[in-house]
Amino acid sequence: MMLCRALRPKNLPLLFHKPKVNPCELWAAPFGSLFSTHIVGDKPILVRDFIHSALYDPKHGYFSQRSKSVGVLPRAIKFNQLEGRKGYMKYLDKIYKESEVSWFTPVEIFKPWYAHGIAEAIMRTANFSVPLKIYEIGGGSGTCAKGIMDYIMLNAPPRVYNNMTYISVEVSPSLAEIQRETVGEVHSHLSKFRVECRDATDRSGWGDVEQQPCWVIMLEVLDNLPHDLIYSENQVSPWMEVWVEKLQDRETLSELYKPLQDSLIKRCVEIIDLDKKHDFQSSAILKAKSVWSKVFPKPQRCWLPTGCLKLLEVLHEVLPKMSLIASDFSYLPDVRILGERAPLVSTKVLLLTFKGDQLFMKLKFMILVCFQGDADIFFPTEFWLLERIDHYCSGWLKLQKDMLSKEGKKRRTITLDTSSFMDEFGLPSKTRTKDGYNPLLDDFKNTKFYLSVPTHNTV
């Protein structure tokens, strides 16, 4: 299984079909009737704003329209009763057919063990001299929250469970209601759990700064955060912001390029330091490259995790002593959209309906065409960059020539692949099949965990 959201097994070959894509056709519109005209008005908008509206708009966004796309299993899978990989895949196909949902998340497929591993990681490092407080960003169906609270109720000292608070920050009202129902299956959890239906990247929703230590959990959140796109005509041309605008026919969307001026994009570019390689090159080399770029121009496109930067800036401001656990894709296979860190876009309707050339034609234009509450988007996470953004937002890593704060690092961080994390904190024996095959450890090779905790330098 290559996707963190486990798609129907029989659909994976279709999803990973690799077409040829012409760069100039990326924003074309062969299916004009599918455009979300409400997303782009009379004025151009940045790519991140287009993606944000497509995914999170209260009326038309994917997560508002597709609350039932997140599957909830009626009971935990008994892995020790499955023969092996073949039996596991057959069972997955069966539960997908019965539920008719778009995906099951890892925390759902491997419940309660996946959430128990996260709870164990929290318990090993939490400061129990203060009440335990956990925030989960994008809590999905509430399975993670319930699993963590179950584990703490059964394994922590009673005072820890009795005094804990678990807050889910969820943008989707329908998913928020599902979370309340899931956690409410254990009555004692209800007094300790609440859902705040809001956008976690909006600073105004957080209120006053929380000075006490707390935990923040983000599972499969980073891949859905809006990204920006920048473009360069050739190897030496300056980067430009990409905006989305309507053409005069009102049915066609097109790219518009502007010099870098958006502050969030500029900060993200500096953090990544895209042009650092030019600092150490001689004028002769740069001149040769300039000539080469004119003879053999190579347009460049780069997707920037500006949504991640914005979220971490807010979290570090309002929760300066937070500890963070995030899990997401480290890479995505056979991505068709152009550019570094480009996303994979999928729809259940497409996977079930389109085949052959029609399938890839739809995918080819999907980044702009299919966002009417029908398409999910997956961005890969470069974990070295996540760590860099984390250090920047904590106040240790400064911009402008990578100046470092004299106070020293404010975060201790580590990145682990999923199997290493679960080996360390989970109970892998609980997800092992009869022949020794373990989907939790053997399948999710393109996902990782990122752990970040404050040091004594945090002020």
Summary keywords:
alpha/beta; transferase; protein-arginine omega-N symmetric methyltransferase activity; methyltransferase; 459 residues; NDUFAF7_sf; globular; single chain; Rossmann fold
Give a written overview of the molecule:
The structure is a single chain. 35% of the residues lie in helices and 17% in strands. By secondary structure, the chain is an alpha/beta fold. The chain has 2 domains: 39-69 and 228-275 and 294-304 and 333-348 and 363-379, no CATH class; 70-217 and 306-331 and 383-458, 3-Layer(aba) Sandwich (Rossmann fold), CATH 3.40.50. The strands form 3 sheets. The chain has a 7-stranded mixed β-sheet with strand order 4-3-2-5-10-14-13, with helices on both faces. Strands 1, 6, 7, 8 and 9 form a 5-stranded antiparallel β-sheet that branches. A two-stranded antiparallel ribbon has the order 11-12. Helix 9 links the parallel strand 3 (165-170) and strand 4 (193-197). Helix 6 (113-125) packs across helix 17 (418-425). Belongs to the NDUFAF7 family. Arginine methyltransferase involved in the assembly or stability of mitochondrial NADH:ubiquinone oxidoreductase complex (complex I). Its main location: mitochondrion. Keywords: Methyltransferase, Mitochondrion, Transferase.
CATH superfamily of the largest domain: Vaccinia Virus protein VP39
CATH architecture of the largest domain: 3-Layer(aba) Sandwich
The strand order across the widest sheet is: 4-3-2-5-10-14-13
Tally of contiguous helical segments: 18
Domain count: 2
Oligomer: single chain
Strand content of the residues, in percent? 15-25%
Main sheet makeup: 7 strands, mixed
Low-confidence stretches: 6-37, 348-373
